[in-house]
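User: what does the whole thing look like in 3D?
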Amino acid sequence: MSTTTPVDLVDYDEAVTRYDPVIGIEVHVELGTRTKMFDGAEQSFGEEPNTQITPVSLGLPGALPAVNGTAVEYAIRIGLALNCGIAPSCRFARKNYFYPDVPKNFQTSQYDEPIAHDGWVDVELADGTIFRVQIERAHMEEDAGKNTHVGGEGGRIHGATYSLVDYNRAGVPLVEIVTRPIEGAGARAPEVARAYVQTLRDIFRALEVSEARMERGNVRADVNVSLRPTPHSPLGTRTETKNVNSFRSVERAVRYEISRQAAALDAGATIVQETRHWHEDTGITTAGRVKSDAEDYRYFPEPDLVPIVPDPVWVEGIRLALPELPAARRRRLAEDWGYADAEMRDVVNAGAVELIEATTAAGASAAAARKWWMGELARTAKQQDVELADLPITPAQIGALQRLVDSGRITDTLARQVLEGVLAGEGDPEQVVVARGLEVVSDDGALLAAIDTALAAQPDVAAKVRAGNLGPVGAIIGAVMKATRGQADAARVRELVLQRLEP
Amino acid sequence: MSADLTRLTAADLAAALTSGDVSSVEATTAHLDRIAAVDGPVHAFLHVAADEALATARAVDASRAAGQTLHPLAGVPIAVKDIVVTRGLPTTAGSRILEGWLPPYDATLVARIKAAGLPILGKTNMDEFAMGSSTEHSGYGNTHNPWDLERIPGGSGGGSAAAVAAYEAPLAIGTDTGGSIRQPAAVTGTVGVKPTYGSVSRYGLIALASSLDQAGPVTRTVLDAALLHALIAGHDPLDSTSLPDEVPDFVAAARRGATGDLSGVRIGVVRELQGDGYQSGVLARFTESLDLLREAGADIVEVSCPHFEHALAAYYLILPAEASSNLAKFDGMRFGLRVEPTSGPVTAERVMGATRGAGFGDEVKRRIILGTYALSAGYYDAYYGSAQKVRTLIQRDFTAAFTQVDVLVSPTTPTTAFRLGEKLDDPLAMYLNDVATIPVNLAGVPGMSLPAGLSDDGLPVGFQVIAPARADDRLYRVGAALEALLEQRWEGPLLSRAPELEEAR
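Assistant: Here's the predicted 3D structure for the full assembly of 1008 residues, as structure tokens:
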């Protein structure tokens, strides 16, 4: 599949001047329920293959599905958070196709009766622009198992000598969220696509319906792209790029398809309606199967399951219990913390909202929390190429550090050394201060001794100061600070030096 | 002694077990001996589980000896149709594609049977995946009608009906999608009940058509059917179409009916389920039965169900459509037969094709193709969609009829048992056997067939009673009354007139 025959591309900026891109995104999210969508098998990530299975998961003869009520509740939560209507009654349907990772050779999904429909979600772009994405539907379905192809190149089915199937994932509950065509994004279509998926991810986490970890495939996106000459032209033929599984890739894949399709259209070719594969390594898409009449899933209502008829009172209860959603929360926090819009955006983009919130909860001021996380720690994270949250330091530790500064036990300068110690695994700030002996020396006797030594070492400077020339006093202070390894309060040292040298 | 034990009804055997006159080991041994003696020519069983059955029997006898409270049917042997999944016992649904498969779990109804301590004698023959009305479509040979070994025992549950008719088992489990319990009962002179859809859990029944399938009792008497139905009925969270309702008291209804008094019971004769195509001897027995019911105090009126004439057509779209999807899982990937293509690359898709080509019989393939076509894009509305509308109309016919009467009645089948091979090459003629039973499945209502006598050809005729959904108890009341009145006239059960089978030595 990794045929990388060179493809004509049009420079992106040029492509979007000649064509108006329209995108559509399907996001699948795995729900974090204890058990699967239709059976009692437990589901958790990373277990031994084929250990989280029942006769239902394996599609054994005679086995029947039974709907997981928690999964339905989570789907409703998602629907409500996306401002959707919740169907008063809806059914599951069978999507029939033969593939070894689908144990029954049909997927139980929802077809013409999704549980949630007709909603919208606002996504915020990096510069603060709000873009509203219309949601067509959100429906429930089950995940497939996982194939491992052995013997072929790079784990691909082509050339493989055999394949292994792990049914642990088969039957894991999914909600698929489908947008309406996203129009009017113009050149910012790739950015909108990325921001949309990121917004959904944040919502899933806030709703506590999924861990929503992209790297584990908890959230997967299929991106549809089509081009048309002008925003007033009819929609062009679209391609669907499957399984784009990081925010960055979503943006890149849309960008790539715009450039590729523009080149094809420039050359007078037509776009083939097809599924395309995204290649993370090379950043390109390649053709998969052609979507045509050949694909007939023979949908029909699942006769083994009765319709789902959510009690309106229950749905209202779920609505009332919805947690604060990320956008509203960000607005509230920015206000509480007194951050400017641009500051808050930086905080959000750095993934520091929760960290700062926890740090303020640990007693630090919002300003101080932002100073640490967006300053010294952001730099460290960038140097080490890790997420802020993955640094080996906790908001509680930052809170403790700031308390040490506020109480005057350490200076800002010392605090940076303490931070370094905490990051190096030397323990909590208090322990680092003690272990490294970093406390401010506030004992005048000790300071005077150091001052006397410094004055004795630099008699000419002492003489000048005594004579009323205060200029060179810094040399004495510097020597004292050096002798105390920075642990002295420089202002106090200056006072004491001047007292000492009073004529 | 053995021979006598096999002739007892389940109720009488249960009484003998309870009183301690007979042990379950004796009863089970007697039936295993009978199977060994007559099942060669009858071929009701695909698998006999002698060791497991005797182990259960011993355990029940020990529990009884220890003074434990047991289920009323504890120790009474039972046969189970091979479409019902049984842990550790081969389960093939009559198909070569499942040859050698040992299920790792029990169907819910099997779990109940085991918990109640009924020794499972074995698994009974059937048309492959329950597709057929003669058991000739089994992948493992024909079952023969104990009344005439040259004739079909009905289908798809010919094995369960023949086993009970041949005294190989006092009780059996069948499944009924369009008549597979009732039609075999009719042609073997036994009793069969298709419960209300959702009365008995479908968990562990290998699905033919999910919206039509229902398991039920196959017995020699109405009371025995009530006893077995009571054991297997009830809510099961593993089957979301299972009814949460409290189960009516079938046994009390049967005992009440057996008094022969049906005063005030309104009985409707379905105009559309008689006349053309019905054998004269079948109609004669049906009319005589109506006379008896009238004498017993019932009001008998004729009712019309105008849409029943479309039932067969709708059924043969809905069933194949659901079956085409239900049978997709038989692909050689996870269980059962696996056949690799003899030439060309061995890909998953080609292994699936080769396995299905080799493992499925012609009737199964015919229905998979029909169903696949009926669900295809562009044809769905015309076929599956229209059939579902017809189904709704048939349900309304029943609803309307049940505002006038308490139960509906008809002959179970248009004819008595035909000869083996007679209709094998004419699928439509075969399908017509179920013309009177199919509307019941389409509407999800319960139906019973019980013996109404012998036709001119000396073969059994079945009488069908149909009740509203959730009112299965009415079947038992009316059925038991008719049974009592008929047996009074016959001076014994109809089966006592069946020719004695030659016992192998």
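In plain terms: The CA atoms of residues 453 and 480 of chain A lie 9 Å apart. Residues 247-266 of chain A form the longest helix (20 residues).
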